[in-house]
Amino acid sequence: MFWKIVVVLLIGFLAWAYQALCPPSPRICGSRGGPVVEAPRIKLRDGRHLAYKELGVPKERAKYKIILSHAFGSSRHEVSIATSEVVEKLGIHFVCFDRPGYGQSDPNPKRTIKSTALDIEELADQLELGSKFYIIGISMGGQVLWGCLKYIPHRLAGAALIAPVVNYWWSGFPSNLSTEVYNQQFVADQWALRVAHHAPWLLYWWNTQKWFPSSSVEAERPNITAPDLKVLSKVAHRLNTREYATQQGIYESLHRDMKVAFGKWEFSPMDLDNSFSDGQGSVHLWHGIEDGIVPVTLQRYIVQKLPWIKYHELPDAGHLFIYGDSSIQDEVLNSLLTE
Ligand SMILES: *[C@@H]1O[C@H](CO)[C@@H](O)[C@H](O)[C@H]1NC(C)=O
Ligand SMILES: *[C@@H]1O[C@H](CO)[C@@H](O)[C@H](O)[C@H]1NC(C)=O
């Protein structure tokens, strides 16, 4: 009798654990009961769709074509930089896309840094952006750019990384430095990253359970510094597109993003070679000294190892500077396109 009860309890526990660990299936756009498709989309080689949005001057008339890779919990609607005054002056056409699993782009359960770089190449080809194009990546979207520099460098005319998120496990960091900086984060974030890196299968449960605090960024309580508060007081309403961004479910958007970003990479950005050694194009990186989310010390270390990156360090800037003052948006576009 006793053993029967134990077995029944064990089966019950396993069933519960299985349910708690397994994310629900995503609500695919365009499927029955799923969100409707109203954005323009391309169909990729493997059958997935990628939703995008075009802005700036029409493609036919544009001198420069830029693909934008959005931040964590954001979407193709994150286009502050496309409202800069220099867009018309320089003749820039923008394509912003929902990264896989976000907004109206189909999830990619096999998503990697490489797969997203190849998605970008296909997007550029199907939209006929030409043999070379520019890319700008913001925060988590900046990681995608390291993938482009690694896997499709021959397609790039230039790249701008805006406060790109760092993976503490990239090889090349002195371990005393990465450990020191890692330990300065909120304890909840240390755990969320540890789970994403060491036990990605646990991440859905970790991020949805209520016993321990989960990632501060996912919970929308990140380490906001004074300059970021200033930006937020102006544009918080515009930045809030999370509902659209995660409409197919938080797992294939937010959690998949964390798994890829903080998981095990095939390469370290610090091992990359300069893809523009012929001087035709450049890579820029902007970072705020008061960034409370991505520590400036690690970014400094990366650019010191990659002297071909043009590094712009901004005093009095936090993580969100790109959404604030339009003069920084102008500066990014001018440096990327005309320097
Ligand atoms: C890490 O160790 C190196 C070499 O021992 C040292 O030069 C450096 O200052 C240390 N960095 C930190 C952040 O402790
Ligand atoms: C918050 O950001 C500040 C400024 O970058 C940094 O000094 C501090 O260590 C950060 N705190 C946490 C808990 O991440």
Protein architecture, described:
It is a single chain. The protein has 339 residues and is of the alpha/beta class. It contains 12 helices and 8 strands. It has a single domain, classed as Rossmann fold (3-Layer(aba) Sandwich). 38% of the residues lie in helices and 14% in strands. An 8-stranded mixed sheet has the order 1-2-4-3-5-6-7-8, with helices on both faces. It is globular and about 80 Å long. The N and C termini lie far apart (79 Å). The model has no long low-confidence stretch (mean pLDDT 92). The chain binds 2-acetamido-2-deoxy-beta-D-glucopyranose (2 copies). The site of one 2-acetamido-2-deoxy-beta-D-glucopyranose has 8 residues, from loops.
Task: Give keywords.
339 residues, alpha/beta, Rossmann fold, eight-stranded mixed sheet, 8 strands, globular, binds 2-acetamido-2-deoxy-beta-D-glucopyranose, hydrolase activity, AB_hydrolase_1, signal, AB hydrolase-1 domain-containing protein
